[in-house]
Amino acid sequence: MPLLVNLIMAAVLRGALPYTVAEGGERYRYYLMHTFSPIADCSSFHCFRILPPLLASLMPLGTIDAFLVTGFLFQAAAGTMLWLIAEHLHGSRRVALLTICWFWITWGPMQSFSDPLLIADPVQAFWSFAALYLLLTERYVAALPFLTLGAAAKESVLLVPAIYALYAWFTLERTARRLLWPALLVAVLAAAWFTLRFALHRWFGYVTAGDGPYLRQLYFFTDWVPSLGPAPGNVATAALYMYGTFGAAWVLGAIGLRHAHRRQRMLTLAAIPAMAFLSIYQLPDRALACFPYAILIPAAVYIRRPRRLCCRRPYIGGRHRTRGGGGPGVYHDVRALGWHLRRSAAMKVERRQ
Description:
By secondary structure, this protein is mainly alpha-helical. The protein is about 70% helix and about 0% strand.
């Protein structure tokens, strides 16, 4: 069901959105890598993302059609993995469905479909969400080769085991299995990434000398914000761009964390450093779109929450009950009141007998 729902939503979005084949920036390099990879003496760090154009080249189609189909399939697969993450954290298909409905109208899928040459984004989305799901379900052996291959997708995949390591620490489940595996995954993924870069540099002349200056210049502050216009108006424009990544889900997600399961709150908290780091070194709107599980799932929890009957919390059976959606809470719906009335009636019958 999750895959079918996401394929339907992807088809609707694909039919509704026009696409453009722009030539600037990294798009041209992905286009070349689809046909001529590896590119000798490539001077851009985008050239190290060899997996997405390689996957597109496996399609028996023309270049543009291959990018369109590959992006469509991986974006639908990413939505499917996001569904599984939401259902795993909250045990609710309704929360998962609401999450996916919101996901397909956010900036990530819309940009992937409107600009298909940015093939790295849908591929990394699937790789990141699938790797996170494997880690959350403690399938560490399967996650190890999957993440190792993901080192060739995009740099954001490198942050997934670090996010999970923080999540495991915050949830206080600090057993040797929970802490040693994330540390091993972080080390192996970093080693795979550096090995890939060294191999491409050694054998094909890929340029790595620009990495240090790029990291030191803080792209967000030195390039992106100034490019939006004179201060202080550019700050407001930057904030608007970043807000547009998830829209009202920023607000509802923050409120929804109060109603969410503790595991969700810890996952969002663990993702915040990665969100800030990636936003500094990449386009912030595209960077933040890598973390819908931190914002959209709590927003869906807030929308799904039971409606309150009154302003005060009802006291039922000597303690506050916990909602099936997870997290501390009380009965706020009609079923809770009905249960309380039935229980009171049963107690009266017992007393009469």
